[in-house]
Amino acid sequence: xxxxxxxxxxxxxxxxxxxxxxxxxxxxxxxxxxxxxxxxxxxxxxxxxxxxxxxxxxxxxxxxxxxxxxxxxxxxxxxxxxxxxxxxxxxxxxxxxxxxxxxxxxxxxxxxxxxxxxxxxxxxxxxxxxxxxxxxxxxxxxxxxxxxxxxxxxxxxxxx
Length: 160
What we know:
single chain, 0% strand, mainly alpha
């Protein structure tokens, strides 16, 4: 693992997401705070997923030894995107919203723990330092662009 920057970048995002999820879980009702925190989280998760798929997963999909892990993670990204879309459609003051949020939070925390504990070490063992460096550059370039896209595009938009 010659250039672990990609994994450091992703872990840094994950740590920020954990904090955002905890803060959002502390909110109550249809408050301005809940609305703002959820919107920030939604944009961040959408941008992170898109940039991670382009930087890391695309590289992993091209590697037969890593393909299954990458496919699994892509499907989990879709699941989280679906949760975000559902949360947008539910009244934030309802118990249904809180239940859906807790389900989404549990699934996302499981996803990022799995990435950090299993996928990242596996990818680091298999991929070259040059590939890791290129992935970091791709992620760092793509993430700000994806944040701008996520600001305009809700979950499920531009999908069939």
